[in-house]
Amino acid sequence: KLERVWMNLEHELRESFDDSTVIFLGDYCDRGPDTAKVLDFLVSLPERYPAQKHVFLCGNHDFAFAAFLRLLPPPPDGFSLSDTWKEYQKNEEREGWWSGEGYEEMHIQGRRWAGNIRDRYNVKKGMDY
């Protein structure tokens, strides 16, 4: 599907395609089964199209994935990532935050998105997730 969209873009832009600026809007690792293929495709673009400029914005799914992989920089001023959880810790059990190996060094988004929601009813909002 991504290759088809890329070919459509090439067809629409015609001769200006080769030196275009292409902006990708994020969520490259959303729910699809081919995250690795999507990332490989995106990473290959600068080499395949050296005259183009590629801008890759980070979506919330990408941010959470990077957080889970512990790729985010540490908080400033000597704080630890666990310091950032305190405000949300009341949700930890209901949301089933990840507590596997290395969770102490993980941003809250990585813990939340990698976890397994135990209670899918949000009392505060009066609805299921």
Automatic annotation (TrEMBL):
Organism phylogeny: Eukaryota, Viridiplantae, Streptophyta, Embryophyta, Tracheophyta
Identification of the protein by name: Calcineurin-like phosphoesterase domain-containing protein
InterPro entries linked: Calcineurin-like_PHP (IPR004843), Metallo-depent_PP-like (IPR029052)
Any one GO molecular function term: hydrolase activity
All residue ranges annotated as the Calcineurin-like phosphoesterase domain in the record: 11-96
Pfam family, one: Metallophos
